[in-house]
């Protein structure tokens, strides 16, 4: 086999990930109200994929075709931009067929539960009268029809907006023209009526489609359909940087305006139109037939979010996950005081973000606090965290906020917050021209009688109260003076647009992230070659970095047992004989979006474990400023190890990859207990606020497991009895926002899975695969490398 046999194309891997999200839309083990949300998430994910990834590839392909740019091949599968586009389209069409089937089944299930979608092709006379009257009184007056012919230009079609298209024929000349009606996103999209104890719902675009003859006249109308255009949204900030006298915020604002009119990359149509309509639209939008997707389901599935919200409000608890709240600390818990005793690790959404917010608010009032510094990437629309920073500035503290204005699809929100921060007296900086700042870093500096002291927070997730209840993330808080000094240095470098070249306790991309992790892998490989039971457990969102993939192959061939928990993009194949047979990959997609990054390295004696903001995507390792930290507190090392082991035992949300790159859902063996790692976290962290020494799992591991394996799964019903403060209905309706629609970093949308079935052990080509370690973690200091060695590692290709 060639080296390429272990690689998977990034874009095709992402489509496989979205297929795993789509699969939750038909999973009978997922409540119906949640299934329809996953269908909506699948759709919003795909929109973003076309807007960003396909848009970028199309731009490159156009430049290469015109010879403006030299042909560039992807560095793993050696595909050009045009070849990648050619592979994406048929796979997307296949996914659309699956989506149509799952959608039809969802409608059947909704009808069984009293929610019927109006079928305008089969209305009774009474229903026809009701809907026609509604159309004429409520919709017809606000519609703006247009005619496209020789005398009228083709209108601009807005990104992701739905349109009615009608093929018209002149009575006398027999000439054809196209009628277009924008169905504005400003209109109410769903309409509900109660009938015979059931709820009927209709979509505005289908209502307009049904009564199209009322707009254009029955005699002249030949064909009608609905269509939707997706446009490229991959704006290039460098294009706006030519005039350095312009404020950076103004540049971003202008680029956001420009984004709305970028080239079309996809056309969705339903039902199948007349060939003349399709040809005309493709011609005007400059799209090939391969970019047209005919579908039987609605063009935009986001209406399922509103429908599920109504279902929940009307009281159908059986159709949704059991409500769960983040666990709160005792009333007298003070995070700033606790962190002076020992390092703290918070796990969202299982534990509340409130203690962190309370610590910020307390720091804003503390006379000994002289400064608060924070990196801000994605913030909530109503952010208590930003409010605390503004309060601190108004109280005379030095507040430095690095606001990344290029956080995709959150640009406008960040622009707005940056203005408010400046107005409150905060120092706002925007980071590098060439590196997006994706770090999650906070530094609180106090000056007391004994000098300066620090509280440093390093996290895997955004400072966002909303997503902290939807995404799984880890927040490490410490009073370690050395980490505080390194964090202070990072902020100084960010302020003057310098990369951090030296750090001992922290990971700081791009110069002290990948190189450190590759060194850790080398250390584990050396241990395996000496016959030790070496292993790695690596959990993140995505992996595409070629250097890391090749190092994983080297580790597998050396006999290192490697378990990877990769939610999304995965450009390496697992269990390829002779290459990655000791590499085992699983993806977790479930109730919460798995977003945390944990990197654990075991050399047969010692465990070194990190959390970080960065994945193993090349953009994270080489093109962004990311931060991470090695967790040295033995209690927290054990806790993180237990979390990883719990996820490796999950047989509810998991899917595992085979040597062909395909994922298979994990099914528990007969008699094997169900292990849902997400629900198991509530049990694992039940007594975490009152720290015991040493850390102990709250439930024992099964006797057949090794000591390193973690808590046995308990049922949701048991958890509801034992943790009533967590699993109980909220006193007021919980806000069920769509994760993917709100915070798309993500390709990022709601995605989680886990699956595993027993697999036969495969012998490594050079050494036997090591079993998963059962040795208690021991902390050792990392080996410091010279500056020359680190620079050499960074430029290694």
TrEMBL record:
Reaction(s) the record says it catalyses: [phosphate](n) + ATP = [phosphate](n+1) + ADP
EC number(s) on file: 2.7.4.1
Domain Polyphosphate kinase N-terminal: 7-116
Active site (catalytic residues): 438
Source domain of life: Bacteria
Domain Polyphosphate kinase C-terminal: 336-497, 507-678
Positions bound to Mg(2+): 378, 408
GO molecular function: polyphosphate kinase activity
Region span, Disordered: 756-780
Keywords: ATP-binding, Kinase, Magnesium, Metal-binding, Nucleotide-binding, Phosphoprotein, Transferase
Post-translational modification: An intermediate of this reaction is the autophosphorylated ppk in which a phosphate is covalently linked to a histidine residue through a N-P bond.
Top-level EC class: transferase
Known cofactor(s): Mg(2+)
Domain spans labelled Polyphosphate kinase middle: 127-307
Chain residues that bind ATP: 45, 471, 567, 595
Purpose: Catalyzes the reversible transfer of the terminal phosphate of ATP to form a long-chain polyphosphate (polyP).
Family label: Belongs to the polyphosphate kinase 1 (PPK1) family.
HAMAP family assigned: Polyphosphate_kinase
Official protein name in the record: Polyphosphate kinase
Source organism of this protein record: Faecalibacterium tardum
């Amino acid at each position: 086999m060639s080296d390429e046999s272990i690689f998977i194309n990034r874009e095709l891997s992402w489509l496989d990930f979205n297929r795993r999200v789509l699969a939750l839309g038909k999973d009978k083990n997922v409540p119906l109200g949640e299934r329809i949300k996953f269908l909506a998430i699948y759709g919003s994910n795909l929109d973003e994929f076309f807007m960003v990834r396909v848009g970028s590839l199309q731009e490159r392909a156009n430049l290469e075709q015109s010879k403006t740019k030299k042909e560039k091949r992807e560095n793993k599968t050696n595909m050009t931009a045009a070849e990648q586009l050619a592979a994406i389209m048929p796979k997307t069409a296949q996914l659309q067929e699956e989506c149509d089937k799952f959608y039809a089944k969802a409608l059947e299930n909704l009808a069984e539960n009293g929610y019927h979608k109006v079928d305008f092709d089969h209305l009774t006379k009474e229903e026809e009268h009701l809907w026609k009257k509604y159309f004429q009184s409520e919709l017809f007056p606000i519609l703006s029809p247009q005619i496209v012919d020789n005398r009228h230009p083709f209108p601009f079609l807005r990104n992701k907006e739905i349109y009615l298209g009608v093929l018209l024929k002149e009575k006398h000349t027999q000439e054809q023209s196209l009628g277009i009606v924008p169905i504005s996103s400003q209109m109410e999209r769903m309409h509900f009526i109660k009938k015979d104890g059931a709820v009927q719902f209709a979509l505005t675009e289908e209502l307009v489609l049904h009564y199209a003859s009322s707009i254009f006249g029955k005699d002249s109308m030949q064909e009608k359909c609905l269509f939707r255009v997706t446009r490229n949204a991959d704006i290039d900030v460098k294009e706006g940087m030519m005039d350095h006298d312009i404020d950076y915020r103004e540049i971003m604002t202008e680029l956001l305006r420009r984004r709305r009119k970028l080239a079309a990359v996809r056309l969705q149509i339903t039902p199948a139109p007349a060939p003349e309509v399709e040809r005309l639209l493709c011609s005007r939008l400059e799209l090939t037939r391969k970019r047209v997707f005919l579908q039987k389901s609605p063009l935009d599935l986001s209406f399922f979010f509103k429908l599920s919200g109504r279902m929940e409000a009307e009281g159908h608890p059986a159709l949704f996950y059991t409500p769960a709240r983040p666990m709160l600390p005792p009333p007298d818990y003070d995070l700033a005081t606790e962190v002076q005793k020992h390092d703290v690790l918070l796990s969202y959404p299982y534990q509340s973000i409130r203690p962190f917010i309370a610590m910020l608010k307390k720091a804003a009032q503390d006379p000994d606090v002289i400064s608060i510094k924070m990196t801000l990437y994605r913030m909530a629309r109503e952010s208590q965290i930003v409010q605390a920073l503004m309060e601190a500035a108004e109280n005379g503290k030095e507040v430095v906020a690095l606001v990344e204005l290029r956080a995709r699809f959150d640009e406008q929100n960040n622009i707005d917050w940056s203005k408010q921060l400046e107005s409150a007296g905060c120092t706002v900086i925007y980071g590098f021209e060439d590196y997006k700042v994706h770090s999650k870093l906070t530094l609180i500096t106090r000056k007391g009688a004994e000098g300066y002291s620090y509280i440093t927070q390093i996290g895997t997730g955004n400072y966002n109260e909303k997503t902290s209840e939807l995404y799984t993330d880890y927040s490490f808080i410490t009073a370690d003076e050395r980490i505080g000094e390194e964090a202070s240095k990072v902020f100084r470098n960010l302020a003057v647009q310098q990369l951090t070249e030296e750090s001992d306790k922290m990971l700081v991309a791009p110069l002290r992230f990948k190189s450190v992790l590759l060194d850790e892998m080398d250390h584990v490989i050396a241990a395996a070659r000496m016959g030790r039971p070496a292993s790695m457990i690596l959990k993140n969102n995505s992996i595409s970095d070629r250097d890391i993939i090749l190092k994983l192959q080297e580790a597998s061939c050396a006999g290192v047992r490697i378990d990877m928990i990769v939610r999304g993009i995965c450009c390496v194949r697992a269990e390829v004989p002779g290459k990655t047979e000791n590499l085992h990959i699983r993806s977790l997609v479930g109730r919460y979006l798995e977003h945390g990054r944990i990197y654990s390295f075991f050399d047969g004696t010692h465990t070194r474990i990190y959390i970080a903001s960065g994945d193993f995507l090349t953009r994270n390792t080489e093109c962004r400023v990311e931060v991470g930290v090695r967790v040295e507190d033995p209690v927290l090392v054990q806790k993180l190890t237990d979390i990883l082991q719990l996820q490796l035992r999950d047989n509810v949300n998991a899917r595992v990859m085979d040597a062909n790159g395909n994922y298979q859902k994990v099914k528990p063996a007969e008699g094997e207990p169900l292990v849902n790692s997400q629900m198991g976290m509530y049990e694992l962290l039940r007594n975490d606020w009152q720290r015991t020494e040493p850390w102990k799992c709250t439930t024992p591991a099964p006797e057949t497991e090794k000591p390193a394996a973690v808590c046995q799964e308990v049922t949701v019903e048991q958890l509801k009895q034992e943790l009533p403060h967590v699993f109980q209905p909220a006193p007021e309706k919980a806000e069920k926002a769509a994760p993917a629609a709100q915070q798309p970093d993500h390709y990022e949308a709601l995605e989680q899975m886990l699956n595993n079935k027993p697999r036969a052990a495969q012998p490594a080509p050079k050494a036997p695969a090591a079993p998963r370690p059962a040795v208690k973690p021991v902390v050792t200091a990392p080996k410091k490398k010279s500056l020359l060695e680190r620079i050499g590692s960074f430029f290694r290709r």
